[in-house]
Design goal:
The structure is a single chain. This protein is globular. The mean pLDDT is about 95. The chain is built from eight helices and 14 strands. The longest helix is centred in the middle third of the chain and has 17 residues, at about 130-145. Helix content is about 30%, strand content about 25%. The relative contact order is 0.16. It has two domains: about 5-125 and about 320-335, Rossmann fold, CATH 3.40.50.720; about 130-160 and about 195-315, 2-Layer Sandwich (Dihydrodipicolinate Reductase, domain 2).
């Protein structure tokens, strides 16, 4: 018997990918509803070979529904999350709103699957930040082998992480045939994004870090290990889809590059492309549309004891958002969880 699933924010980039992933992975669904704000009511989205019409979330009754996959921002999560959960429908939320709540599990199934057992305190599960999700998938097997002490990461994050308007801005600036000296008026971003990089994602904090950088630290500790020290520099780059990360890790115990490569090759969710030759590494172009977290450029860091460096790339709309949310739903199904115990009659 399948689930009754609602996708909230179904007209957005991630919402549409959630529908694609649910269909491609054949998640057991008896009934599906696609929801958004009133202004999107009646719009159509695809689900496999079906076309579904958007319903107004304000008019929707979640009683009797099992799982709500939400990707509609923190404001919607704050307003509707508790209401949906109170109806007995388990919320898997992609926004940052619930991630740091101590009684809401923050889950990456390859890393901390047992945290799903804590989901029913509030009937809400949080999906991590896109840059964190791929990072912890790569860090987990290394931590199990050699115990991570410290991580330094620089990200190269695609514009799709900032939404449709950001993608449109990159496209508009690019097709305008920009040349040096030509004025470009930024809108979504603080500076021109085409042919440029911007070392600023989310708001600045008092210590000089951005909130995106803080998120990576806080989320990695919550998901993987609170004792890990992590520092990040997050950069927006003119790529449509796919986040890349240059990662340097310091361990408590020795680990060679060959050992690390073997660990990565045996780990779930990881695809190693690591040839020490021109083109022998993954880029966002290869990762776009793929479920894997790609790992390349594995090498010893000679500047610290027990140090290792690597490059990882993943589709931020998939593993960084939609895929991870669906994998959480699959985890619930595997463990016989997630069914709404409240009926309409109740």
């Amino acid at each position: 018997m399948g689930y009754r699933v609602a996708v909230v924010g179904a007209t957005g980039n991630v919402g549409r990918e959630m529908l694609n992933v649910l269909s491609e992975r054949e998640f057991p669904i008896d009934e599906i509803a696609v929801l958004a704000s009133r202004r999107s009511k009646g719009a159509e989205v695809s689900f496999g070979d079906k076309t579904l019409k958007i319903q107004d979330i304000d008019d929707f009754d979640f009683t009797g529904w099992d799982i709500a996959l939400m990707s509609a921002g923190s404001g919607v999560a704050k307003e509707y999350g508790p209401k949906i959960a109170a109806a007995g429908c388990l919320v898997i939320d992609n926004s940052s709103y619930y991630r740091y709540e101590p009684d809401v599990p923050l889950i990456v199934p390859e890393v901390n699957p047992d945290a799903v057992e804590l989901a029913f305190k509030r009937n809400i599960i949080a999906n991590p930040n896109c840059s964190t999700a791929q990072l912890v998938v790569a860090l987990k097997p290394l931590h199990d082998r050699a115990t991570i002490k410290r991580v330094v990461v620089s990200t190269y994050q695609s514009v799709s992480g900032a939404g449709k308007e950001a993608m449109e801005e990159l496209w508009d600036q690019t097709k305008a045939k920009y040349v040096p000296g030509k004025d470009v008026e930024p809108s979504k971003f603080t500076k021109q994004i085409a042919f440029n990089v911007i070392p600023h994602i989310d708001v600045f904090m008092k210590d000089g870090f951005t909130k995106e950088e803080w998120k990576m630290t806080a989320e990695t500790r919550k998901i993987l290990d609170p004792s890990i020290d992590l520092v990040a520099t997050c950069v927006r780059v003119p790529v449509f889809v796919g986040h890349s990360e240059a990662v340097s890790v310091e361990f408590e115990h020795p680990i060679t590059d060959d050992e690390a490569r073997e660990v990565f090759e045996e780990a779930p969710g990881i695809l190693v492309i690591d040839k020490r030759e021109a083109g022998g590494y993954a880029t966002p172009v290869e990762a776009a549309g793929d479920y894997a977290t790609y790992v390349s450029r594995i090498r010893v860091d000679p500047t610290v004891d027990n140090g290792l460096m690597f490059w990882c790339v993943s589709d931020n709309l998939l593993k960084g958002a939609a895929l991870n949310a669906v994998q959480i739903a699959e985890l619930l199904n595997e463990r016989g969880l997630g069914k709404n115990k409240k009926s309409k009659a109740a």
